Amino acid sequence: MDSGSIVYMHTDVLHQTEIVDILTKPETSCTSNVPPYKPKANEVYLFQTGADDWKCDQYLWINNGTKSVTIGNDVLKKHFYKIRLPGTTDKTNGRKRPVGSLQFKKTAYSLKSNKSLILVHYEGDETVYVPVGHGNSKKSDPPEYTRTAPSVLRKIEQDIRESISNGSVSGEHQGVLNARNVKQVENLVRKVNEEERLSKDDIYNLLLLAYHMDGFIHEVTVFPDLSSIIALPEMISIVNHLLDVNTEDDVPFVFFYDTTFKCGDFFVSPIVFRNIIFEDRPIMPVAFLIHSRKKEKTHARFASTSSKESKTKAYLDPIAWINGLNSDHKQTIENNEWLCSEIINVCCRIISRQFPNISGFQPTGLSPVFDEATKSWSEKFGSFSQKGCPTVQIHHTGKSHWVTSLQSVNDQCIYVLDSFSKTFTLTPSLDIQLAAIYGHGKKHISMKLPEVQRQPNGYDCGVYSIANLLEFCFNGGTSNFKNKTAFEPTGMREHLIKCLELGYFSKFPQSLNSCADSVKMHTRKIECSCVCGKPDILENMFGCEGKRGRVTCSKWVHQSCSNVLGDWLCDEHRSTV
C-alpha cells in the first residue's frame, strides 16, 4: 500500500492462535505506522503506533462492541466495527442513530502487555460503503468526510502550546512571561479577529468597498431590494469606444444579458459583449448586477445605469400625494413592492392619533447602524426610548424586513410579530431596539414570538406589520393569540391606500370563511449583562478576570463601559486587589 501502509497478509479467516502468534512474534518488515487508504476485504495490517492513527483508514465505522480473552498471563482484547452507511434510524428513546452494516466489518486485536501493537483484519465486501459527509455539515451535498489522525491533532496542539508558552520561565514569573490562562488567550484571539475583520455588517462592507474602489462599484441600493452594480471603468471605456468606431456591418456589436449564476443568497446578472477588435471575437464582461430578487424594476435600473445615454436622460420630480408622501410612494404600494420607512412612519403617525392611550409609534429611523470605527453598533441617529404598556412599535430588523413588537396590559408580556420568519430568531439590530423600549434595566428580557399569519410572498412584511399593529390597537392594547388572524392578502394594499387617503385607519379585511388556526408560541431571550442595560450584542464584551477560589467571575461588561484597554475587573474583585 502507499504512504507507508503495508499489507501484513491476506486471509478471509483469522484464527485466535494466529492472532496471538503475530502479536507476540511480529514480522517487523511488514509492520505499518501509517493507516491504509480504503483497504479491501481480507486484508490484514499490523500497526506499531502510540496513537489511534490506525483507525483513520478513510472509512466511517460504528463501534460494535469489545471482548477480552485471557490467554496465559496476558489478555487479548478485540474491538469490533461495522461500516457506517448514509441515513439514520430512530430508537425507542427518540434519539437518532447512524445506520451500520455487517456486510463490511473490521476487527482490531491487541495484547494488554503491548497496547501499541495493533492487528486489524478487514472482512466482507468493501463495495457496500457509500461516502458520506460530516455529521454537522449543513450542505445538501457535502464532500466526503475524512478523519484526521489523532497524532496530527496532538502535534498541532503541542506546536501551538510551545509557540505561546515558555517552559523555562520560573514559577514567580508564570502569568507574567507566559500566558496567564486560557481565557486570556481567547480574549486576545477575539480581539485580533475583531481588528482584522472589515466589519460585522455586510452592507456596510459593501459601501466601504465602494468608497475605496473608486469607479468599480457604481451603485448600491439597500432598500427595498439590495442590489449593486459593478463594472471596471476600463471595460466601460472600451465599450463606449467600440460603439463609436464600429463600422463592421458583417460583425455586429452584440450584447448578451442573463442571470447566469447564484452566489449564496444573491443572483449575479452580467452584461457581456462580443469584442470585435480581436480576431476570434471573444465574449467579455462589461458590468455585473448583484441582486437579491429577480425583479423587473431592478433589471430596468441596471439597464438604465449601464446605458451610455443615461447622462442626458431627463427625470421628472414625483407628484405630491398625501401626508408628505408622493406618487412614487403610491406606486410602491400599488406595484407590490416593499414598503419604505416613509410609508411606515406616516401610517404610524395617523394610527397614533386614533389611539392616544397606546404609546409607541416611534420613527423607524431610530434603528442602530454598525460603526466601523469602533467595531460596534452605533445609535448616532438616536435611539428608541422606554415606553410603558400598552405600547406598540414597527421595527426594521436590519435585514430588509419589517416586524411589529408590542406589550399588552393584560399579561405584561412582550411579543414580536413576524409574518415571514420560519426560525423565529431576533437580529442584532432588533435586539438593541427591543431592549431600548422594553428593557427597563433588566439583565434578561424574555420575548415571545407567536406564529402569526404568514404573508404569502416575500414583499408584504410592511403591510402585515401595519395590519398586526392595528389589530392590537383595536383590541384596546391587549394581546389575543388564541387564534391566527385571517387577513385577505389580495385586498390589503388597496385597503392601505384607501386608509392613507382618508387619513383614518380601519381594520384590514379578513376572511369570514377561513378556519382560524391555533397559535404556537416561541420564546427568545435578550441578554443585557453590562451595567449600562444595553444588549451584549451592542459591542465587544470583556469578562471579569477575577476568581472566587477556582471559579471565574461571571460578570461581563461592554468594552466602552469598562474604561480599560486590557484586563478588566468588576467592582467586587477590584476592591480585593
Polypeptide structure, described:
The chain has 577 residues and is an alpha+beta fold. It has four domains: 9-153, no CATH class; 213-311, no CATH class; 327-527, Adenoviral Proteinase, Chain (3-Layer(aba) Sandwich); 540-574, no CATH class. Helix content is 24%, strand content 25%. It contains 13 helices and 25 strands. The chain has helices at residues 16-24, 150-164, 182-196, 202-212, 233-245, 296-306, 327-334, 341-354, 428-438, 461-474, 492-502, 559-562, 571-574; strands at 9-10, 31-32, 43-48, 61-71, 74-90, 96-111, 114-124, 217-221, 227-230, 255-257, 261-263, 266-274, 283-291, 359-360, 369-371, 376-378, 391-396, 402-407, 414-417, 444-450, 521-527, 541-543, 547-548, 551-552, 556-558. Strands 1, 2, 3, 4, 5, 6 and 7 form a seven-stranded mixed β-sheet that branches. Strands 8, 9, 10, 11, 12 and 13 form a six-stranded antiparallel β-sheet that branches. Strands 14-17-18-19 form a four-stranded mixed β-sheet, sandwiched between helices. Strand 23 and strand 24 (551-552) form a beta hairpin. The chain is extended and about 100 Å long. The model is unreliable at 308-317 (pLDDT under 50).
Summarize the structure.
Keywords: Hydrolase, Protease. GO terms for molecular function: cysteine-type peptidase activity. By secondary structure, the chain is of the alpha+beta class.
Q: SSE layout and pairings?
A:
Blueprint: E1 9-10, H1 16-24, E2 31-32, E3 43-48, E4 61-71, E5 74-90, E6 96-111, E7 114-124, H2 150-164, H3 182-196, H4 202-212, E8 217-221, E9 227-230, H5 233-245, E10 255-257, E11 261-263, E12 266-274, E13 283-291, H6 296-306, H7 327-334, H8 341-354, E14 359-360, E15 369-371, E16 376-378, E17 391-396, E18 402-407, E19 414-417, H9 428-438, E20 444-450, H10 461-474, H11 492-502, E21 521-527, E22 541-543, E23 547-548, E24 551-552, E25 556-558, H12 559-562, H13 571-574
Parallel strand pairs: 2-3, 14-17
Antiparallel strand pairs: 1-3, 3-7, 4-5, 5-6, 6-7, 8-9, 9-13, 10-12, 11-12, 12-13, 15-16, 17-18, 18-19, 20-21, 22-25, 23-24
